[in-house]
Batch of 3 targets.
Target 1
Amino acid sequence: MLIFDRAFCFGYHQIAVSADATLNVGQPVTYDNFVISTHPNAGRPGYQRLIKEKENFYAAPGVDGQLTRDSRELFAGAHSVVIGQAPIPEDKIYDTPRAIRKEMGGDDYYSTMFLYPGPASTPDQYRNQFVVWRIDDSMFLLKFGEDETTRLNTLYQNQTALLKRFRPRGDFEVPGPDQHGVCIDDGFIADANDGKGEHFFKTPFASATFPTLPGVRLHVSVNVGSVREGDYLFDRKPPGFVVALFDAFKLRTLRKAERNINGVAGQELLTAWKSEVGEQFLFVWESTENPRLAVRMEWGKQQGAPERQTASPLNEKDALAVWDALLPTLKRRPVQGAAL
């Protein structure tokens, strides 16, 4: 059986995995109002290319009335490209944009940041030394009469403070209890020392695969604010085609029960069926409180053409033993104190 002796950190949480696991934090992730995408092998050439693509896409005459207003380096390896509303010529008829601008009292501006932290500082981070992060959605309204230069300087100060909280992180590196913040793909964002405690964080499924268990995939996710009454795991009905598929394969319920994981209430649903390629399993646990934590483990490749599907590498008893060893390791990453 697998030995879960390494920690996989995602957002404010962690779960144990085996030392040979291949890990991936789903993206893009949302941190406060920022949308963050990871480019793991871009390096400095990719960093420069991404900046140039953004600048050129909104170069005059711009796209949808927008153009690049400014583009500058914030510090070594950090760059910001600011997009703003293009001035509307008086001799052109743009009634709708003009009306919107008048109602808003100004022009929409937004910025995309790019961060290339450079060579990694520890051997565990070596493969991540070429990572580049793209951070979207620095948005603000430049009011009519407001000085653009002053507003941009304030934006750049805030962006610099944010980007200096990013750092590379190795696959199995879990920040210490004195480090408040979130784990993202190949990196870590330290929370601001603003007294607000934890920041909003949401990620698609992060995943892990195991070379010794071919066809097995672990998915974990956190989604703040998504738990609503009537939308618990046991309440949801699968799509009709899934029901028909499971009917054909005689779906069996191995376990369906409430299950508390490290103080978090949740529901567990474990199913099995015998397909054309052999026995397959789907194990799911979801929290019934916010943030929504979800853990899903697929046993056997269950999608794609029949010739590409595979059976579970373990029998029912052994698969359940692996699941019951892994699920209780899901927990919030220990930190000192609730607020920063």
Note: Residues 33-168 form one domain.
Target 2
Amino acid sequence: MVSGQSLTLINRVIYLVSYFQIIGGQALKDGDLPWLVHLYIVHDGQISYCTGSVVSPNYILTAKHCAIFSSLEFILISYGSANRKNMVSQTSAITFTPNSTTLGVLGTSIEFTGNVNPICLSRNLRPKIGDKAIVAGFGLNFQGVNNGAKNPGDEVNPTDMITDLPDDLYAVKVDITEDDLCTCHCDKPEDSLGIKNVTEMCAGGLLEGTLGGDSGGPLMILDQNSKQWFQVGITSRGQTYATNNTSEVVDHGVYTDISKFCDWIETTTNKEVICYP
């Protein structure tokens, strides 16, 4: 279970994400979400960025597309701070991946402190439609829509956005929504990135969502009984839509349901990582 989560810290994070978003907003501080990691991925002669989460001293959890490449050279895993410039790093080239989930194996065990700690997993804590969850990442920050005004409901591609890449960790509260909202109304139906099966869920809304670099990050809820944070999903993909205000967009994101992979996680880690009931 996650240790060292004081009620003061829990209340601070809930307060922050009630007002600030990954899509524009204010950074979190060291220790706010101490399981977040930044991934610097060298592959196929390119560099990519993702987010992940610490789930034990030797394993991190992220998305499949953050680790599956024709030629993966290594992944630099950074942790221990809410600012990328202040993080501790180590490399890993060993990953285990089924379907939409990847476990990265750390070369050196993490020593837990107030600034780096694992998040809990659960077999049964799947949020319902209308519930609130929190998503966080080290990805791009939305600043506005460029290339002229778009009609409300039009798809907004990454090239249509004004973004920056902050060093800090950002988080946002998102609504769990109907799966139909994650069906992409794309120009080409074959480009649809909607819900594929029961291992996924949909979340987001107005100024509620993720961008490039947030992939692999955790979708989290606070269990009211134990006052512990649980990761219930992994940021996978999504679609962003215009409003009548170029400083606002609507995001509908697809998240992998971790509870559907608990058996695989426990078996792969030899039960170093446990999904609680």
Note: The longest strand covers residues 228-242.
Target 3
Amino acid sequence: MHEKKVNPYAHKKKEGLAAGSLIYVGDTLPQQTSIHTHMYRSGSYRMENGYTQAEKENLRWVEISGLEDIQAIVKIAKEFQIANLSLEDVFSTDQRLKLDQYDAYLSVTLRILEHQGTQEQQLTLFLGDGWVLSIAEYNHLSFEPVVRQLSSATKLQSATSSALLHALIDRVVDQYLVKADELELKTENLEELVITKPQETTASAIHQQKAEILRLRRMTSPLKDILTTLIRSENPFLDRNTNFLLRDIYDHALWLFEECDMLRETMSGIMEVYLSSLDMKMNAIMKVLTIISTIFIPLTFLTGLYGMNFAHMPMTSAYWGFYAILGGSVLVVSGMAIYFRRKKWW
């Protein structure tokens, strides 16, 4: 796990620089760059360390993880005619989800959620004619299922490069759906706890849960527009079958958007119920204290009256006077308690 916020003023690095300046801007120190090239076609697959030139009849996926070696990344990117403006977004790791389309390629910026010890990170996917280039902030295992599909006789191995782009996007979106399911289950448990045992939770726990929901919603809200644009753009790098498959991801993005909205509203309701339970608890405490104070008012009066130092007062000289006042006090307390009980104030 990489330590967050190594440089809280990271954006000052780019202050005054021209557009397209290639400089790393991130919350952590850049990780060592790792490059793998996946070459595949129907019935054939191999992976090589480092960058490999294109081969006839083979499709190519260049997978880059870690942004430390900027020169090496830029050198590979220029092999695919990727513009500096696109590369600037790669090295600025706080980008929102977005889609850019150029003559030689299209690019999709996504975010990979925390997965198996790796923190959340930015991912940029580039698609061109017969190739896919992926650049991630850190090493991760999110694409292992995709690699397994490429290395076996599956439809993906014999499909176009745009099908690989779909598979990578689908893998990332699947993480979003899993995260939304986890948040839904945690929200349901929190809702039940607030209703049945509000004393076992806190406002900070509710606020933290709501913050996680809002973070997922804010992160994924552009996804729906990205997929809509891809589906309607008729981009030459997307074949008809991939366009059809993207519609399935769009359905997932639509569900995700609605799910986040529903969970956000649910958390607002949970917070209201929790605050109401606190008010009810406080009212119950004040009710008990008020009843106790009311009971002691006549007792205070009696003890105060007979505590005055006058020479002549009724029953002060009688040996049974103390017991009479004590018995009267018990009768007053008992009478008031019975009255409060009948009125259901207690």
Note: The first helix runs from residue 70 to 79.
